[in-house]
Amino acid sequence: MPLSDSRARTVKIVAALLVIGSVVSVVAAAIIELTLNDFHLPGTPMNFIAQGTITPSTDCGMCHGDFDPENEHFATWEGSLMGQAGRDPLFWAQMTTANQDVANAGYFCMKCHVPKAWVSGHALPPDGSAIDDSDRDGVSCHFCHSMVDPVYRPGVSPPQDEAILAGLPEAPPRHYANAMFVLDPTGTRRAAREGVQPMHEVIHSPFHTTGNFCGTCHDVGNVAVSRQPDGTYRYNAIDQPTPDADPATQFPLERTFTEWRLSAFADGGVDMGGRFGGTRGPVVSTCQDCHMPGVESSNTWFSDIRPDIPRHEFAGASAQVLDIIGKFTQGDPNVNPASIARGRARAVSMLERAASLQATQSGPDLNVRVTNESGHKIPTGHIEGRRIWINVRLFGADGSLLHEYGHYDYDQAELDEHSTTVYEMHVGLSPYAAQVTNLPAGVTGHMALADTIEKDNRIPPRGFNNAAYEAAGAPVVNWTYPDGQYWDEQAFPIPGAAARAEVRLYYQQTPRHYIDMLRDNNTTDQWGQVLHNLWTVTGKGAPIEMAMLDIALGPTCHADVNGDGFADWLDVACIEQAVNGDESCITQNADFNRDGAVNGFDIEAVQIVLDGGACP
């Protein structure tokens, strides 16, 4: 049945019990019954290369590990989310809800998160119940180092690639997205550095130094939801491949690669003064420059020390998820907790470098500017849960807290969202999608069914252009950023007695509403509850401080006419009432310009101050 018929589907509950380790799963019919054909994309098919071709990462660790845990390839990879992707309870809980919404969605999800399952054939069944210890290797060493650039470039691509691409059962991918990877069927390892003589055969691969390589999994579109000529999105007909494999034509679930590709970083690089890149130098351009910084180390325990070894840390923003994984894998002999701890520290460090703060006083307001120092939007990545917000605390001369914007209750894990600006992306269901799914229209937690962007005020990077981002499926929604702007500025009213302000920028990946939703919407297994329990015992996703500053507030007149502690439009209204004879608003500040009368000139003077002008 084509979904364009706009007929709501009835969810049928089917009894069946599966055991996924210690997690009991009840199989239910999904809201939309997609087939494997709906998720078909070009690239290396599942089961296309021989079993055993991709070897375990522990084999790589024999040479590339156990000599420099701070910098070596194996230990840094092992402590990253890449190395632990197959053991991530957040992913498994997310995939459960995706499978409940859309049949066979897990088959698509595992292609990036547990890619070795694509080689082993364990991406089926789509609930992950066939996954074994080998698959849990995550985004493994050998898997990445077997990848072939799907776009053959004469004189640049290894000559072996031409035959590999020609040997695929269909035309190779033309885009870097949606895990449309091509693997060398011989498993011959590929590396970026020339002139090395390893213990195994290796092919020099320029592809591994490019952002295109990372784009393979860091641009994700819903292949079952396509953009229409009028800019809206509609569900595709069932049991048919996507009409266009270009992710820009699909509903956006992640656009990190696109955000970078359309930034000034990709267009020649940006001198960041050493903020990123390590020994690579101050100018950073590719994903690898920031996420695989250069260090002084060696490739193997028997290699020469070099000044520019790429550290395989892949640090992003997933410190809170690494906390959960560390707790979940406690006692697992295949997991090194020390490596995870180092990976978490690097994620925090990356967050601390991803943005900067400025604050200036302007009349009765504190103007706070957040500048994006990264090569993509902040926050970026998987759209669900991730958010950044401004926290402002204002103190009196005696040190007492007078007011707080963006207060976070650590006990309840709740943010006062209405008092501050939260940078995030929300997806939703259009009236059309609501009719098809029988779910409420508007903002939704059913990401696999979403067909609208309800909000996207995430701060863009240097080189931002509205038209280019919108065309690529990464628009700004319900916010305004002029072309070229890579910062946002917000004004916070200052109480009259305030003498000092503390300003902080916080990041959170696992907010309570999201973790609660994954638990409460889970009707088929226990991953939602498992995740919730782990979240609770690891600090409830406590926000991470990205940047902080302290500013003294100088003496200034204050347009707080009504004495409520703030200068705002209510003070203008108060003077207007006083002019009209309302004695309750004839305060000592009503004669704001001090000319001996309460009249329209006082209204005009207050409005000037509220607009940032000087006091009379």
What does this protein structure show overall?
- It contains 18 helices and 26 strands.
- It is α+β, with helices and mostly antiparallel strands.
- Among the domains are: 354-512 and 538-552, no CATH class; 569-610, no CATH class.
- Strands 16, 17, 20, 25 and 26 form a 5-stranded antiparallel β-sheet that branches. Strands 8-7-9 form a 3-stranded antiparallel β-sheet, with no helix packed on it. A 3-stranded antiparallel β-sheet has the order 14-15-24.
- The model is unreliable at 1-26 (pLDDT under 50).
TL;DR?
This protein is of the alpha+beta class.
Mean of pLDDT = 91
Q: What integer value in Å does the Rg equal?
A: 27 Å
Number of helices: 18
N-end to C-end Cα span: 71 Å
Helical residue percent band: 10-25%
Number of strand segments: 26
Bulk shape: globular
Any low-confidence stretches, pLDDT <50, length ≥5? Answer: 1-26
- The computed structural class is alpha+beta
Strand content: 15-25%
